[in-house]
Design goal:
Layout: E1 2-7, E2 16-17, E3 24-25, E4 31-36, E5 47-49, H1 51-56
Antiparallel strand pairs: 1-4, 2-3, 4-5
Organism: Corynebacterium humireducens NBRC 106098 = DSM 45392
Protein name: ATP/GTP-binding protein
Amino acid sequence: MYLFRHMGSHAAQKFYVCPGCNQNIPPGVAHIVAWPRDTGRGADDRRHWHRHCWDRR
């Protein structure tokens, strides 16, 4: 089970790599940030996904 939130384009200020397609998410592109619910590591487990990749998983 995952927790997630939407990251708006204004908050996306650096490059991320989407684990769904292994492509860049450039700054200024809205996307999803997700992390496993059951881990206590928080930021270490966060992954940034393209919205369409998250929806397909």
